Amino acid sequence: MRRREFISLLCAAALWPCAARATQQGEPLRRIGVLMNRAADDPLGQVSLAAFQRSLQQLGWGEGRDVRIDTRWGENNADLVRKYAAELVSLAPDVILAVGTLGAMAVQHLTRTLPIVSNGCQWTDKDKHPRLRASPPTLRSSGRP
């Protein structure tokens, strides 16, 4: 459970600059895109998403009040993950949380301007870790390169 909490806090920390701006009156609703590799009914995926949402609440973010979370579930299906990555990028969120290598690579392939936070990634030489390719760096990963 400590690892999930750490990952959730890492993702929430990536949104900290947006939190500072959101406290000002008249600020628009911030948007977070979440791309999960798991199926929507997967218990581990639900626990991870709930931990992320709790971390946001602890930082003062309320869904529907100052943040909107758009979640897509890729079901470990490469075609679905690519489709949902494109959907999330087209929504132009303030940040994208990509859970797993497949999702992180799909999102990184589509954008160099949106900030991306990833976790649960296992990069190989073949994958060419996106953080090493990105210019400017947009990917923040809690996984090991």
Largest sheet: 5 strands, parallel
> How many strand elements?
5
Beginning-to-end CA distance, first to last residue? 22 Å
**Sheet with the most strands: spatial strand order:** 2-1-3-4-5
CATH first level: which class?
Alpha Beta
Q: Roughly how much helix do the residues carry, as a percent range?
A: 40-55%
Sequence of secondary-structure elements: HHEHEHEHEHE
Could you tell me the strand content as a percent range?
15-25%
CATH homology-level superfamily: Response regulator
CATH topology: Rossmann fold
The residue-averaged pLDDT reads 79
* Content-based structural category: alpha/beta
General description of the model:
- The protein has one domain: Rossmann fold (3-Layer(aba) Sandwich), CATH 3.40.50.
- The protein contains 6 helices and 5 strands.
- It is globular.
Which helices and strands occur, and which strands form pairs?
Layout lengths: L1 H13 L1 H7 L7 E7 L6 H16 L8 E7 L4 H13 L4 E5 L1 H10 L5 E4 L10 H4 L5 E3 L4
Parallel strand pairs: 1-2, 1-3, 3-4, 4-5
